[in-house]
Amino acid sequence: MSNRTTPFAAKNWRRFCPPTRWWQRVTAATLKADLVAGLTGAIVVLPQGVAFAAIAGMPPIYGLYTGMVPAIVAALLGSSWHLVSGPTTAASIVLYSLLSFHAEPGTATYVGSPQKAPTAIDLLP
Question: Quick check: 26 and 75 in contact, CB under 8 A?
Fold first, then answer.
């Protein structure tokens, strides 16, 4: 048995772990620029996420989650240098308009109702 990794196995690994494809291009300058961009994005997105959660009738902490979790997942698994993730006004308004028929916004029933919300398939005639 050989302990050497075959080219096929190496390519397969890189397909499932995108940072292995671009990590060698990271320099001190690009890392500094990424950190500044990340901090700037956090300054904008986190308060915006809290506001969007309020628009959707959800607890403010949900806005923090929607600002942080997609960004972390995208940073670890994404390979696009132009990726945009996080909460949006349109999604907040649609969520509010769909769920407010099922429960009073801000209540435990309302917060738990996204699992019961109709999907796009359910809304088709």
Answer: no
- Per residue in 74-104, pLDDT (tens digit) is 777 765 666 667 777 887 888 888 878 777 8
Distances (CA, A) of 85 to 10, 80, 103: 29, 11, 28
Q: What are phi and psi of 25, to 5 degrees?
A: -85, -5
- Helix (H) or strand (E) segment spanning residue 103: none
**What's this model's pTM, rounded to 2 decimal places?**
0.62
For the chain, what are the domain ranges?
A: 8-123
Max mean pLDDT among 41-45, 49-53, 75-79 falls in 49-53
For residue 19, give both structure tokens: 């940072």
CA–CA–CA angle 68, 12, 19 (5° rounding): 35
d(CA 104, CA 42): 30
